[in-house]
Amino acid sequence: MCLCIVLQLYSSIYFGWFFVFCLIIALLLCFLHPSYRTLLIQYLHERRRILLQAGFCSLLLLSPMIYHYFLAEREIGHRSFQEVFFYLPVWSSWLYLGQESWLYKWQNALFRTILAHQENCLGFGFATTCMVLWVTWRSRKRFLTRIMLAVALTLIFLTTRLEGGSNLWLWVYTFFPGANGLRAVSRIGMMFLFPGMIALAAFFQKIPHWTQFSLALLLILEQGQNLTCYNKANHRMIIDHVVATIPDTCRSFYLIAPHSSDTEDHLQQTAMIASLQKGIPTINGYSGQVPRNWHFYAHREASDNAWSKHYLLPKDSLCRVRMNLPPIRTAYFY
Predict the structure, then answer these.
(1) Over the stretch 22-31, which tens digit does the pLDDT of each residue have?
(2) What DSSP designation does 251 have?
(3) Of 50, 142, 211, 279, which is least packed with CB atoms within 10 Å of its CB?
């Protein structure tokens, strides 16, 4: 299990951190219950050696990532709580399915207090939620059901913005390791999928076979969304054009497209992919946090002198690639 947590942290720091956070909450809740506390202490005592060894090996495997995260924090700092607060869910977020939902687009007019819509689509749909709650009530006496329900309710109360602008997540942000590096805390809603799937599987085992297909179809329709997509061939053609324009003598480059009609996001991402394909670094980039003296996102012809001076780049080591890029074609996928 420790190896799975390590791999999850490497593949996605958000979901790895959320998973560890949920495990810690579950352990704390078990300690609060007398009978569970006795069993848990006995389990930890009997397996203390292998648990210590697994913990030490996990820290050893994570040490390269932790080291680089400390370097990144020293360079650009951590997330401010004001930025984190903007992305926290409100109470209606737990029912909201997004602006592009097939069945619940009408929620947009109802839930006007939701700010970051793309990060606050935390609802399952009314039918799915009812099925999950029905199974939860039927199996309420089981230990696993109780602990998962307690963890879920704890997460909701910790992350949801309260009236008057207060929030309990400030305590987690201040005292829990790594919490000040997370911006979109609402993504913790992904953790609800695991108990939700278990509950749905139990629900379909209990209902008659002749109703399973129609209810499964309803569940699929509830999750239906309109998604944007792009023309892969068009995008690859643009990347190849950028790569061919970069001189072979360049040790690094800065892509400038002053008259391009494309968005800043696509411009920066095009340069990043071209950098990977060319095999040389670029000072273009796209991220929620940027280093000092990096002013290249919204300013397509920003001076790179301050950047080169701050990072002691050798003179003439940075090529300025000026070109006009066609826009990436996007469309809706239904």
Answers:
(1) 999 999 998 8
(2) S
(3) 279
**Quick one: 155 and 179 in the same domain?**
yes
Which two structure tokens, joined as six digits, stand for 215? 């209810």
Q: Model-level pTM?
A: 0.82
Q: How far apart are CA 20 and CA 26, in angstroms?
A: 10
Q: Is the pLDDT of residue 334 over 50?
A: no
Residue in 24, 58, 12, 66 with CA at minimum distance from that of residue 190: 12
Domain match, 63 and 112 both: no
Report how far residue 11's alpha carbon sits from residue 6's, in angstroms, rounded to the nearest whole number: 9
Angle at 286 between CA 280 and CA 291, to 5 degrees: 85
Question: Using one digit for the tens of pLDDT, what is the confidence trace for 184-212?
Answer: 999 999 999 999 999 999 999 988 888 88
Buried b (16+ CB within 10 A) or exposed e, 205-224: eeeeeeeeeebeeebeebee
Residue in the structure block whose two tokens are 């590096």: 181
CB burial string 276-308: b at 16+ within 10 A, e below: eebeeebbbbeeeeeeeebebbeeeebebeebb
| Cβ atoms of 293 and 306 closer than 8 Å | yes
* Claim to verify: residue 72 and residue 93 sit in the same structural domain: no
Domain edge (last residue) among 167, 193, 225:
225
Residues 6+ apart with CB under 8 A from 314: 251
Last residue of a domain, one of 76, 110, 126: 76
Could you list the residue range(s) of the whole structural domain that residue 130 is in? 78-225
